[in-house]
Specification:
Layout lengths: L5 E5 L5 E5 L8 E3 L26 E5 L6 E2 L14 E6 L9 E8 L7 E10 L4 E5 L8 E3 L1 E2 L1
Parallel strand pairs: 3-4, 6-10
Antiparallel strand pairs: 1-2, 4-9, 5-11, 6-7, 7-8, 8-9
Amino acid sequence: MLLSNLCLIALASNAFFSVTLPIECYSYTTLTESYRNYQTFSGCCWTPYDTVSSLPSGWYRISGSAGTALLTTPIYSMNICGASYGGYFNGTLPTTAGGSATGTFCFYTGSPCSYPVAPITAINCNGYYVFYLISPSTGSSYRYCSTN
């Protein structure tokens, strides 16, 4: 099935303009686990953790009980988001439809951003974000934290 990547956006003046969204906005894996959500879940430890085998590097969308985006607020404690080492996106989410931004994902392992993973890319898909996530580890208790 071929999906159009043309997006119409309404302006306050009732005018419309179109934006061609990147193909990544239509080709991703969805993460919906409630334990990822920093705002609604605390504690440790829910498996599988974000490892090479359970979360291979690729494009992901946060939705459902997981929230709507990666957490962008620093974390200063362990045992959060269902894992020993939760983390946040250290960057600015793009505000323009079709826009992208690159940052570092910082995992808290006892000190701020003690285990950085980069580059992490975020794309604004006009109503939701997709993120290129890199597998943080092969066997430790790491988790990409999300938020509403």
